[in-house]
């Protein structure tokens, strides 16, 4: 019996001689690895089913804990109107790597919704910020933004990645002072306030940098896609 699922091609890499291995984020099955046979053959007709960062429907015979082979399917949305944009491709690479490295099967519908929100967003940078905050909270190391994480003082002037939250002047001796706009943004994000409009007014790259480095430090990750973004 064929199974069907609608979802997103999160990543695709060569597998053996002519096949491809796809990380597929499905609405029903979550994040699974699948084999797309013959994708790299000359004149392959599978091109529409292997376009990274696209929405597809796959047919397959699902077997748990095994590599599932894609039998067929159809492309739903290739996002052709934005995929020529280099910034979009770089930030979708970050979204892809975050999804593959940090995916939690217990929250797979939330990960699906966040990936969909990112890929369909008119402001991918803002959604990357919110996605990172979601992952940080899901993994259980939400920073303390209510006061100094060391002494509880409300007179804070920096965000410490190492200590996991705001710090006061006394405990920020080796921390570069964080701008007021970034402090406000971090407070809003991690106290679940609506910060979309505010994020449009600040330096979002600096905020992304803090969040990525925080997740890398506390989750013991290293995200190659972020290195690419930061090097451009």
Automatic annotation (TrEMBL):
Keywords: DNA damage, DNA recombination, DNA repair. The keyword DNA repair applies. Pfam families: RecO_C (PF02565), RecO_N (PF11967). PANTHER family: DNA REPAIR PROTEIN RECO (PTHR33991). The keyword DNA damage applies. One of its GO terms (cellular component) is bacterial nucleoid. The gene is recO. Residues 1-79 form the DNA replication/recombination mediator RecO N-terminal domain. InterPro entries: ARFGAP/RecO, DNA_rep/recomb_RecO_N, NA-bd_OB-fold, RecO. Involved in DNA repair and RecF pathway recombination. One of its GO terms (biological process) is double-strand break repair. Belongs to the RecO family. This is DNA repair protein RecO. It comes from the Bacteria.
